[in-house]
Records
---
Amino acid sequence: MQGYVYLTENDLKRAAKFLGMTARAFEAKYVYRTRHQMRFRKPRDKQCPFLEKHGCSIHPAKPTQCRTFPFWPEIIERRVTWNRAAGYCPGIGKGPLIQIGTALEIAEEQRRAYPELYT
């Protein structure tokens, strides 16, 4: 999968605390910030500095973008994008059924967390 892992200020603070770092030290080591957004620096060999073979190494403090996936507005608003995501997301179609109302609430959380991506 291509793209970046975007962060909110709260995501940054939560991940830093989880790793026992100050927010400033965490940002200096792991974050790329522009005027309008911030994201994890992308290692050459993987999508995210915390993505390991067994999964997310900061799972309890993972960013909102990761926590809300696959219930992003651009995925759940069209059946074709949902079906495409099912091709690369092993969790779609597994586990307990998520009601559409819940999926829409999660999508709205994603939209609120990253308004610059949804304007």
---
Amino acid sequence: MSDGAISQDEIDALLSGVDMGGLGSAGFPPSKSNEKQLNTAPLAEFSSEAASVLADSLTTMTGTTFTVGAPVVEQVNRDQLLRKIPEMIVGVTADFSEGLSGDHLFLLAPEFAQKLAGLINKEDSPELDDMALSVISEIVSQHSGSEITKLSQTGKFPGLNSNPAEAVHVPKAMVRYPSNTFILISYPVTTDGGVFTFWEAIAKDAASLIIGALGGSDDLDIGGGLSAAEMQQMTGMAGGMGLKQGMNGMGMQGMGAMNGMGMQGMGNMQGAMNGMGMQNMGMQGMNGMGMQGMSGGMMGMNVPNVQALQYPNLQQGISSMEQGNIGLIMDVYMEMTVELGRTKKQIKEILGMGEGTIIELDKLAGEPVDILVNHKPIAKGEVVVIDENFGVRVTEILSPIERVSDLR
């Protein structure tokens, strides 16, 4: 009997927003998506060429042979991607910034990221610290740069560029994924007997423009609507009351009699029908009515207008959930440092330092000092003395653009 405690697997599932049974809410399977499906064939060909470049790049940077198999290109949503990736993930954002706009995200399992960082830094079991994450960012920059070069050759995206790659090692629920559905490219990577996956996610709007630039069709197939087979199946529903089957055998002779019936005869028909038992009104008696004779009568029938169901945009709800997850880490400690200044010295100068050596920094007297959180600059301030202790008074908060540029 359960003691009411929640397991670690259930906690992880709640944090990631994925139902434990892999189903939608209330235990029902997710409904058929109404998102328009992109023609991914041009992207599949494009990513196959990128896979070869990725293998060469990894081999060159690590000194170890890497092979990248045929990538899988599919259109997915956030929940579908969350089911594919591990609970902890290394996410690298390299969003398109010029010539093309949209989210551009790369994902690696922590084991894969450690493998790459260890080979490049010549370490056996490296931690995923800032140094290791900067290595992963450089790998993604190389891959993204090769893609941008290839796309620029199409002439469709003048000045195409992307933001500097920024890697983080966080729970998968905290990664910023593209909204709604998006294109996911999965590269199978093999080295030293190990098999890993290198995921690349591209926002749907950006992917659509890329497909067009690669010569793909702009036509989109609408998902979620009724197919021709489904429409035909609906015509045979409602038990034995199918119109098509029930009116198979009414010949033109019977319809001719009706054509010669005037308004006066309609009164006699009403009397005859009043005396007709319900047994003779069964749909079985309509088996003699042919579809050919129904061509004139169908003009008066109300044909239902079948349209694809439009689902509301649920992106706002996802954002709210992600915002709520941030509250779970509000009490986590982070290292804050104040940097007085920096300089570069040759090794022989550093070895020649001794007591009394004066080191000249790149800061002028009275110039604000840099305030960093986990070695990332976020603000500027001035040094103050509080009860014989040094402190810093914040004078400026860096803008998001300045913070991104300093991460490179």
---
Amino acid sequence: MARKLKSDRILFTATLLLVCVSIVMVYSASALVALERFQQSNLFLTKQAMWAVLGLAVLAIAMRVDYRTYKNDAFIWAVLGLVGLMLVGVLFSSPINGTRRWFSVGGLGIQPSELAKLSCVFFTALILERRMHRIDELTYSLLPIGLVVGVLVGLILLQPDFGTSMSLVLIVSVMVFAAGLHYKYWIGTALCLLPAIYMVLVSADYRRRRLLAFWNPWADPLGDGFQIIQSLIAVGTGGVFGRGLMAGVQKLFYLPEPHTDFIYAVIGEELGLVGSTCVLACFVVIAWRGLRIAMRAEDTFGSFVALGLTTMISVQAFVNMSVVLGLMPTKGIPLPLVSAGGSSLLISLLGMGVLLNISQHETSDA
């Protein structure tokens, strides 16, 4: 039987710790950059703190809304329609660093692709709950998922944002894998997708350069390899205990955008192996507790939603930290719950709120 429980305290604590780390490290990483560019050293701190307060409020509300409320066709299709319109609208916005990923609402930057991930988690969970008993009948079970996700991924690629689009595909793939799709379909899909992924990678010059820089960043240390090299220097010079908070060097205009995609490098330099390991441990805890919630969820919908949300946070964190450590090519993906960025923080905290609500409806241990 299902039993009413309090929210998962361990998961909540890990989430709150990461938000606290975010506020401190965003200020440390951005103070001098903000002072140089905008003559306000606390600009990014103020924005991040405001988004954190708003995000925690959203998390508190989501914790109190029964997750089964989202198991509604009209609600999910309305959200998908809104996300689709936002993804189309953002293509007509002013480009930032050569991409069109944000538009402004009341002075706040909104990134629709973040909401696309959350909406796909709910939609995929709804379809899988109803059709997973015939999961190997592709046109019946997976065609709706493929069409919806394919449209959203296509719109995100037009921004262009290869990293987020691949994250979205991976989240949905994990959910479908958990539904029990036969391995022969995975092999067939992989063989079909490889040429498409190759074409996407080589179709843009900057993506080709990123791949070459990943293999040998020292071939162009002042060009395409600059980010990776500076990131590795930051992590390497941090040692065990780090240089000390606010004492980092690489953030002083050596490491591009240190408060966003490469904030983990600043953590490694200033807080050392101890600090960066603690951050990693928080994400490991989120993955552990999220999978535990997915396995103990009261119904199939809750199980798939929990798995999707856990994957959304954990995979993105793994990719970001891998990029910082030179284990993957540069992707432009922020560290969830930590990097500066309102949309990412807000959607991540909303997802964690839903996950915490699912934890209140766990089934009893056997």
